[in-house]
Amino acid sequence: MSVFCPVDTSAYDNIEDATLWTRITTRHTHQEMVVALNTAPAVKQTFCLTHLNVILVFTVGDEDTHTQHVRTVLQMCQDNNMKANLQACVFNAPDAEKAGFRFEKVGSGDNRALIVVDLGVPPRQRRT
What we know:
Blueprint: E1 2-4, H1 10-17, E2 20-25, H2 30-38, E3 48-51, E4 54-59, H3 63-79, E5 90-93, E6 101-106, E7 113-118
Antiparallel strand pairs: 1-7, 2-4, 2-5, 3-4, 6-7
């Protein structure tokens, strides 16, 4: 469990309205991912969050937009010599739970946040 409290508050609406989700499980620590994200201005909180060793990409819109968001995140990973654990990734899930996540809202207005709950990779989504 972690807390997501983005600076750009439109990220809250994007999470609520997202139609496509990709879970990229890495072989790196949360701190390594934060450093990588800080060096990648193209990766925005409006379509991406990190939880432990997972990067979650969420998109409001079509599959082409989602594919571009995922490519941007994967390029950031490549630029920082980060590796994904493909066995634990989920691509193009139709909702957060199918990507292995649940969100709980806390607070309101300018004092809101999301509790991020990692449910793990759903069995049907696991790559073999």
